[in-house]
Structures are given as structure tokens and as C-alpha cells.
Design goal:
By secondary structure, this protein is mostly helical. It has five helices and no strands.
Amino acid sequence: MKTLINMLPADVFHNEEGQSAVEYLVICTALVTMLLISSSQDSLYNIMSHTMQDKYKSYAFGVSISDPPSKQFDDTVKEDADKVKEVLNILGEIRALVSHMILPDILHGKMPSTDSIKQFASLVKSLF
């Protein structure tokens, strides 16, 4: 009695043409099925598609607003930096004035001088 294996030609088991295509087909079918079978809102397909859409929207927005800086922009930044330096210098002068000014001491009758008060007021006004 011949078995089924003995009845097949000998080269059937050695012929591997198309085997990788079948393997790819099986794996791709399993992945697509896994992505699409879940009917809930939190399916893997929905999560991946929303993530990719969000990333694309972020990229498109970033590209749309990223104009190269112009000379006018550079000049504005330099002017702002100069204003900040000026304010910092004035604050340094105020700090030096306050640290050297005699603070009011009512018990000993010491009051700041009128000139130092005027100088302090003018420095504060120059900030605004």
C-alpha cells in the first residue's frame, strides 16, 4: 500500500518558488485583519491614523510659519535687546543708589537727602 507522500513526485518538497510570497501574503493578511477587526474607537488602526494625521498637521503648520528672518526682524530684535540692556543698567543704578542711600531711621532722626530722593524718582521715571 502506497502512502500519499510516496505518490507525490520527489521534487514537490524541494520546490520553494513562491514560498516567500505566500509568507508575506499570510503575514500582511494577519496584520490587516488585526488592524481592521477591532470595531471600538480605540482600535490600533484609529490610534495610528490619528497619530499620523496629527504629526502631519504639526509638520505642515511648522513649515507654513517658518519664514526666514528678515532684516526688519533682526533690527527689531537688536532694538529690543538695547532696550533690555538700558533697563538693566537703570536697575543697577537704582540698586546702587538704594544700597548707598541712608534708609529712614526714625529713632535716630536720619532721613534720606532730597537729592537722593530726586535721583531715585528720576531713575524710576526713566524706566517708564
